Amino acid sequence: MEAMTFVLFGSTGDLAKRKIFPALYNLYVDRKMPEAFSIIGLGRKSFNDATFQTYVEQSLQEFSRNTPNDRKTVDAFLRSIRYHILNVDDTAGYQELLKLVEQRESELNIPQNRMFYMSVAPEFFGVIADNINASGLGNTSGWKRLIIEKPFGHDLESARQLNQHLSKTFAEEEVFRIDHYLGKPMVQNMESFTSANPVIQSLWNNRHIANVQITASEVVGVEERAGYYDHTGAIRDMVQNHMLQVLMMTAMTLPGGHTADDVRSHKKYIAKALRPISKEDAHKHIVRAQYVNGVVSGREVQGYQDEPGIELGSNTDTFVAARVWVDDFSWEGVPFYIRTGKRMKEKSTRIVIEFKNTMQNSEICVDCDGQPNMLTISINPEEKITLQLNRRNVKTGLLEPMTSEFVMGTDNDPEAYELLIGDALNGDGTFFAHWDEVELSWQWVQPILEAFADNSLPLHDYAAGTYGPEASDALLAEQGFRWLGDQ
Ligand code: NAD
């Protein structure tokens, strides 16, 4: 890996503290950082280098996977860190920043490889990119790259504008858009799971699969993010990005021996194949809902409307379920159901594949009591794959389901941010959202946003601590299915 300078905008923020510094430290401990590197934290707070290094060390103590207890290693890591006060719209301040970056490059005798990370509110993305350009920070004799956080736009138009703005300074191959679901080991594993296992590969189509169900349920409510969430809702916060990315990773059917580019171009192919849902038809395929008071994990909790910071009479969706069709010959007739919500019964991110129950349709069926075979890919909180088959109970003579579990994760596995930042440092964009995928996702979501804005589909209620409204069950029942794997 090439030596580089890591310039972090928003280094005093929540994400930097909880995820980015721990990720950099863990990469360092695991010898996945370059031999020489410089980290420059930017913010408005009045830290100096020493006080900022202490602040970073505290974040490692609290959040790092590898406990920072080896003094020599911790000190060596902290020595690479400098702090610079910069207000993002202070044009002159970027000249000072350039001087600092160049000074560190010459002290460490490293090439001008510069990684810019925007861990700040999205309204600052444009102004920072402009200033990187205007100040000369972006004129490097080495490479320059940009890591950017979600949200990438608020709708199709704003996402396009943002992309146009950024592309004045950064070429597409220099931009690494984080969708942290793509950093989850089980999601990354999907490409190998379906392409490196001939047994699975041969089943991954509409001849064998009846439907696919992708769930991302949370137990928490809006927490401290009420102001942000009330203008975002589940459709923007979860569906446009994470849910559709997981769907793309699931629907990919790649041959063995594929390249990183194959993964991205196949994801784009799937994104293009998503059957559009018009604003007028949204009510047929989409269920939106909001939680009311209920009991979560044995505790009475208030409804969304009563949460502090939520506008009176808010129509924001805290739950969305959707039926998605992928117009590709291998997925013809297979509904992909997605479902995400806050204040649901359990925290779970999973993909459930229900296989066709051919026995039920067979004229010579003698074992019609068998359950459909089922494959559950659990992404969070556990990482495991569970296969459900049928077996005969010798005592009763009846068929009954049996399951086999393949546990993937261990406690000390690298976290999503480690994997993603490590990939970006290596220039590997496989598990980042390409602009084409982002644009296609917004295109798919846009008519649904408009239907929500016009209230042209009902806003259902669901009690906190449940799996969502009845309408979500009815959506699957239309094809004779039901949500699988709920506790
Ligand atoms: P935060 O509010 O905790 O931190 C924002 C940072 O921006 C702070 O360091 C602050 O000092 C800095 N900042 C604000 N205004 C500034 C200005 N005018 N000039 C210079 N610096 C300024 O936010 P966060 O939670 O760390 O999130 C950062 C980004 O990551 C946001 O885009 C957010 O949407 C995204 N994100 C965060 C999380 C998370 O878990 N925190 C998850 C996903 C995405």
Automatic annotation (TrEMBL):
Top EC class of this enzyme: oxidoreductase
Gene name for this UniProt entry: zwf
Positions annotated to bind NADP(+): G10, S11, T12, G13, D14, L15, A16, K17, R44, K150
Metabolic or biological pathway, per its Swiss-Prot or TrEMBL entry: Carbohydrate degradation; pentose phosphate pathway; D-ribulose 5-phosphate from D-glucose 6-phosphate (oxidative stage): step 1/3
Positions of substrate binding: H180, K184, E218, D237, K342, K347
Catalytic residues (UniProt): H242 (proton acceptor)
Any GO molecular function: glucose-6-phosphate dehydrogenase activity
Keyword field contains Nucleotide-binding: no
Catalysed reactions listed for this entry: D-glucose 6-phosphate + NADP(+) = 6-phospho-D-glucono-1,5-lactone + NADPH + H(+)
Protein family (similarity comment): Belongs to the glucose-6-phosphate dehydrogenase family.
Span of domain Glucose-6-phosphate dehydrogenase C-terminal: 195-483
Function of the protein: Catalyzes the oxidation of glucose 6-phosphate to 6-phosphogluconolactone.
Organism, as annotated: Paenibacillus hunanensis
Transmembrane stretches, start-end: none
Keyword flag Transcription regulation: no
Pfam families with a match to the protein in the record: G6PD_C, G6PD_N
Record-given protein name: Glucose-6-phosphate 1-dehydrogenase
EC number: 1.1.1.49
